[in-house]
Design a protein that fits this description.
The relative contact order is 0.10. Helices cover 40% and strands 13% of the residues. The N and C termini lie far apart (64 Å). It has 202 residues and is of the alpha/beta class.
């Protein structure tokens, strides 16, 4: 009876590391061999941190940002402007906008419309956004999706969805270079983009 041969643990680690964004085969190999030579306690601390993150972090039931407590620290902060929601693609974008001085609320879509990759409206956190706008407290929705083809298409789609609710839908100013991701921009560029946002016609 044939038995499955256990996989080499280093090769298994390299394969798992290659699934990370921006990590190619050679980078995965370098990281794996680095971890092989760090003190055992450091490697175990990294593994524990990953496991604990997956166990304790969830999505905020209001804005869909990553959080340990629900609602998240942004949604539960009474000092934030509750009349404005800034819609972003990913949780990383929230941290970028915080550095730029934005002090309203957020909504994280967890992606953008991309038919070629099978991402349609059903895969985005759009229903949660509509529920928040229906409450009547929100007066402006800032579309802060990245200035890519998919980001622009998503912004226009959301603007059309929000038309019946009578909220003002704006777009970040064009100070952001085409194709740039928010989390890579400097704080001054993001601040100017927030201040120069314009109305978005559906």
């Amino acid at each position: 009876m044939a038995h499955d041969v256990p996989r080499d643990p280093v090769e298994e680690l390299i394969e798992q590391l290659r699934k990370l964004p921006g990590v190619g085969p050679r980078s995965a190999q370098r990281i794996a061999f680095h971890l092989l030579h760090v003190p055992k306690e450091d490697a175990e601390a990294l593994a524990t941190a990953i496991i604990e993150m997956r166990r304790r972090v969830r999505l905020c039931s209001q804005c869909c940002h990553i959080t340990e407590a629900d609602p998240c620290r942004f949604c539960s902060d009474p000092r934030r402007d509750r009349s404005t929601i800034c819609v972003v693609e990913q949780p990383l974008d929230v941290f970028a906008l915080e550095r730029a001085g934005y002090r309203g609320l957020y909504h994280v879509l967890h992606g953008v419309l991309n038919p070629l990759e099978g991402v349609g409206p059903e895969q985005l956190r759009l229903q949660e956004l509509l529920r928040r706008v229906q409450g009547g407290e929100v007066r402006e929705v800032i579309m802060a999706t990245n200035p890519s083809l998919e980001g622009e298409a998503t912004a226009m789609y959301v603007a059309r969805l929000l038309e019946p609710y009578g909220v003002r839908v704006t777009r970040l100013a064009r100070g952001i270079p085409a194709g740039a991701d928010l989390d890579f921009l400097d704080d001054a560029t993001l601040t100017r983009a927030l201040e120069g946002r314009h109305a978005l016609e559906g």
